[in-house]
Design goal:
Elements: E1 4-9, H1 15-26, E2 30-40, E3 43-51, E4 56-61, E5 71-72, E6 75-77, H2 79-95, E7 99-105, H3 113-124, E8 129-134, H4 139-145, E9 150-154, H5 163-174
Parallel strand pairs: 1-8, 1-9, 2-7, 7-8
Antiparallel strand pairs: 2-3, 3-4, 4-6, 5-6
């Protein structure tokens, strides 16, 4: 069993909700980020990235257009924001010896090579890593899913309610005692 736990499942199955419940219990022992949908009139408008130290930025939105914003579906992705805020949050958590939270490893995030690189360093490094990852097969995501250090759990209607407690128990099993 590895030192990285990745939750996977279909969109809107509850992965981020589980991450947020676990992070609330971990307090300052965790660093990194989670993502949330941005809703407005007419439905979903984009995605916001929130670091565990309180920064909130829009990293993907339907109104982001132009050559600086690669598209995933109807959303433009600000890979510079992902690098400057998301990647920085992961690196900061790793340096501080915290549990590294990465929500999510998905199509939009995988457009960024600095993001892919920091995820690989986190998984192969000494820190515990808790994250979510795209359910469907994706070339870059599949590399992470198959690493020996990774434990992969599926979130679905049957598993969702018990996963926050199960995740905390998994992390406790591997967490280094405080020095």
């Amino acid at each position: 069993m590895g030192k990285t736990l990745l939750l996977t499942g279909h969109p809107a199955c509850g992965k981020t909700t589980i991450i947020r419940k676990v992070v609330a219990q971990l307090g300052n022992r965790a660093g990194g980020f989670y993502t949330e949908e941005i809703f407005g009139p007419g439905g979903r408008k984009g995605f916001e990235l929130t670091t565990l130290d309180g920064k909130k930025v829009i990293f993907s939105h339907k109104d982001l257009r132009g050559s600086n914003y690669p598209r995933v579906g109807r959303y433009g992705v600000d890979t510079a924001i992902l690098r400057d805020v998301g990647v920085a949050a992961i690196e900061s958590a790793m340096r501080a010896g915290k549990i590294v939270v990465i929500d999510e490893i998905g199509k939009m995030e995988l457009l960024s090579s600095p993001f892919r690189d920091v995820v690989m360093r986190a998984i192969l490094g000494p820190n515990l890593v808790l994250g979510t990852i795209i359910y469907k097969s994706h070339p870059e995501a599949d590399v992470f899913k198959t690493l020996a250090q990774v434990t992969l759990w599926e979130v679905n209607d049957l598993s969702r309610d018990g996963l926050p407690k199960k995740t905390l128990a998994w992390l406790k099993e591997f967490e280094r005692p405080a020095s």
